[in-house]
Amino acid sequence: MLDVVIMAAGLGTRMKSRTAKVLHAVGGRPLVAHVVRAAAAIGADRLVTVVGHQAESVEAAVRRAAEGAGIRSIHFALQAEQFGTGHAVQQAAGYLEGDTVLVLSGDVPMLEATTLRALVDCHALETNAATLLSVRLADPAGYGRIVRSASGSFERIVEHRDATEAERSIDEINAGIYAFDRAKLLPALGRLSTGNDQGEYYLTDVLGMLVADGDRVGVVCHGDAAELAGINTRRELAETEARLKLRTLGRLMDSGVTIVDPLTTYVDDTVTVGRDTVLHPGTVLSGDSVVGEGCEIGPNAQLVDARLADDVHVRAMSVVEKASIAAGGRIGPFARIRPGTELGAGVHIGNFVEVKNSVLGAGAKANHLTYLGDAEVGANSNIGAGTVTCNYDGKNKHRTTIGERVYIGSDTMLVAPVTVGDGAKTGAGSVVTKDVEPDTLVVGVPARVVPKPNS
User: Which of 53, 123, 280, 368 is catalytic?
Assistant: First the structure.
């Protein structure tokens, strides 16, 4: 049974932020959510997150990520005051049940599940009391150094501020990621002291204790320092965002997505894109957006929590937010599709058209300079240029219902609540204040029915 402890209690003073460090986002997710997903990917049975600053918000972010990734045993340990990494794990100790305990930091978003799997497998294969990840740095200043014996085995970790000049010359540093035998970890936690320069309980001291007790501590030296890098500053946040973006774009291209210019295309790690879709320069896909196969997005288009079926084109300068578009939709250029909108198969929304909280049936078209808010538009209806659904009376929003095969003339004002029946037409410049019966023509201000010949 594998337990995972994530240390996520600190504020992160170097971020210069009122927001807890692990809640800052890269790739569309909070830092801590990336770590949770990596833990889930290696089959974590139990997740214990140590929280402190903004505990409720951190707990909410962790729970969302854990439940979304399939972890069911989720626990939180409060570290009201932060007295070091050893103190953090002490708070989690009462929740631990597994034979192996993996200890992670909540600010390492590039961490790969394959790396954690290699660590856990090495720990089990060598039957270590503890196993840690290390990495070699050209400039190791500020990091804890791995001190090895003459034979190359692990002896201890010395923190930078406690290290001698000789120890500071060591380039192998502690990555802060550990696997422990729980039966060895718990007693050692109780023996920690604050006899160091910072006056804190160091989790790294547990490793030295285990060696002194005659237990084996293993080291897995990892080759990619960037993957194991923690986030401490806004600069590092931006650098990691750039690296994660390139990883995400690379994964998409490998799966069959065409990205015309990766340097100017931004796709969150949370986004799904189908094969044979083309992303043009300046495209931004964020949140939980899902894009089908054979779509074409951009240039300079933005999707936020959008759902696009196959063969949808979102043309230049268009925005789709919290909306869905069925197969064959054509959007833009310069269109805005706002939350709550559902566009049916083959719908055309043209330049300078805004659609909000509306449903358009298959084949409906609004090609020019139109506002459709709180509306239902039937299949194969055509909305003329300059049409406005006047949905707000100053206090409340009202709905407009337009039937199938309706022709709305240019510059028509539809004063909600109002219904236009199937097959009806409005003349250009009409102001519709009353319901329009099916298959009738209304014109004027206010709009009146034009009698049919011989009626």
Answer: 368
- Cα–Cα distance between 435 and 419 in angstroms, integer? 5
Q: What is the pLDDT of residues 123-176, one digit of tens each?
A: 999 999 999 999 999 999 888 999 999 899 999 898 888 899 999 999 999 999
Nearest to 185 by CA among 153, 201, 209, 221: 209
- Name every residue whose Cβ is closer than 8 Å to that of residue 371 and which is 6 or more positions away in sequence: 353, 354, 355, 356, 387, 388, 389
How far is Cα 147 from Cα 224, in angstroms, rounded to an integer?
20
Residue 34 sits at the vertex; the CA angle it makes with 228 and 63, to the nearest 5 degrees, is 140
For the chain, the domains span 2-222, 243-450
Which one is the CATH code of 2-222: 3.40.190.10, 3.40.630.30, 1.20.1250.20, 3.90.550.10?
3.90.550.10
Answer whether 384's CB lies under 8 Å from 410's CB.
yes
φ, ψ (nearest 5 deg) of residue 447: -70, 135
- pTM of the predicted structure, to 2 decimals: 0.88
Give the model confidence (pLDDT) of 411-427 as tens digits: 999 999 999 999 999 99
Is 160 catalytic? The answer is no
